[in-house]
Design the sequence.
């Protein structure tokens, strides 16, 4: 089954729009499959997407959204998964750097920032479902990534300046934290059925850890480990992207 | 009320009538509507309505493979609640259409008398 590019674009936009307004994945796939079936029949008979949905895709998407409820259960799950994910990344990094002291800033800040980021992401996706240019999408995504990184930098700065340690972990505690993070990564990989949550932590933390045992100077260690991390992740994402495009 | 709102209510009743005749799917409903002259109905507009009707339990769906092979297709069936709703719609429609026809009819006569 091969739909016209206009129809495929509309289907993708609809999926994004409904997802970003918090609808259930199952319900979305259900609607999308039915519409694909219809578009397929209609295009066989020479009709265009405008004949079917009218001139305003946005208005049509809203009609669906109005009939569907916000799926709290699903989004609480996503939110919890993201908070756990951020915790796992932060904890594993801290364990490797032997910096497992936490202040209230960090304990409250990280979950709060993650939830804010998730909400921002949903709003952005809703906005992007109405945008036709791909470049605009990339710029907006870059912008919100910058906002998130900015948020974390601000948090770390606040913590360094005003944060008082309220929780401290000893070496046994560190091992437990490390195993906990690893478990979250493995669990997340199974849940999302992808290796991203295994590959990225490995590229991010393994070079740093291995280089610690070399006689290299600390600055040099940092530069090399960051380079390996960055290049490794970029190459991995490049291959994932290529594989996904081939499926289409 | 906007004209599209009125049309939506009528369309819902007509869809119930079509589904009450036996199992059917989206594209077939549009073809049937077209046969009766409903060309003002935008094809896609039936789907949000069908979704609502499903949530109100007026219709049920079953997914089955298409007879000619290929992807799954969603077939609609009417429920008892849907049949009740259809009867209500018929009554209301008879009342409205009789009244509207009478009124328009008299107006035309009035015009002639002048």
Sequence:
């Amino acid at each position: 089954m091969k739909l016209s590019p206009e129809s495929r674009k509309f289907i993708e936009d609809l999926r994004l729009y409904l997802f970003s307004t918090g609808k259930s994945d199952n319900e979305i796939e259900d609607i999308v499959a039915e519409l694909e079936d219809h578009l397929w029949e209609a295009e066989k008979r020479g009709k265009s997407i405008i004949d079917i949905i009218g001139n305003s895709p946005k208005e049509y998407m809203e009609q669906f959204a109005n009939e569907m409820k916000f799926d709290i259960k699903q989004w609480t799950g996503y939110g919890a998964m993201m908070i756990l994910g951020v915790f796992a990344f932060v904890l594993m990094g801290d364990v490797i750097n032997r910096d497992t002291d936490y202040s209230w800033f960090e304990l409250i800040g990280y979950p709060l920032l993650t939830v804010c980021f998730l909400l921002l992401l949903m709003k952005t996706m809703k906005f992007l479902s109405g945008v036709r240019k791909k470049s605009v999408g990339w710029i907006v995504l870059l912008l919100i990534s910058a906002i998130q990184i900015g948020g974390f930098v601000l948090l770390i700065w606040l913590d360094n300046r005003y944060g008082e340690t309220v929780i401290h972990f000893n070496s046994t505690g560190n091992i437990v934290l490390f195993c906990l993070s690893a478990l979250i990564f493995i669990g997340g990989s199974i849940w999302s059925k992808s290796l991203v949550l295994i590959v990225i932590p490995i590229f991010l933390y393994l070079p740093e850890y291995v280089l610690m045992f070399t006689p290299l100077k600390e600055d040099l260690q940092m530069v090399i480990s960051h380079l390996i991390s960055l290049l490794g992740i970029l190459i991995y994402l490049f291959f994932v992207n290529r594989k996904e495009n081939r499926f289409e | 009320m906007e004209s599209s709102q009125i049309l939506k209510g009528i369309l819902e009743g007509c869809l119930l009538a079509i589904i009450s005749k036996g199992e059917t799917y989206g594209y077939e409903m549009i073809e049937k509507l077209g046969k009766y002259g409903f060309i003002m109905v935008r094809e896609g507009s039936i789907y949000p309505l069908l979704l609502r009707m499903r949530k109100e339990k007026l219709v049920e769906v079953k997914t089955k493979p298409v007879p000619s092979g290929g992807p799954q297709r969603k077939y609609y069936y009417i429920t008892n609640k849907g049949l009740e709703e259809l009867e209500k719609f018929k009554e209301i429609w008879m009342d409205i259409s009789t009244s509207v026809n009478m009124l328009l009819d008299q107006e035309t006569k009035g015009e002639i008398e002048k």
User: Anything to note?
Assistant: The radius of gyration of chain A is 22 Å. Chain A touches chain B at residues 1, 30-31, 33-38, 41-42, 47, 51-54, 60, 63-64, 66-68 (CB under 8 Å). The mean pLDDT of chain A is 86. Chain A has ten helices and two strands.
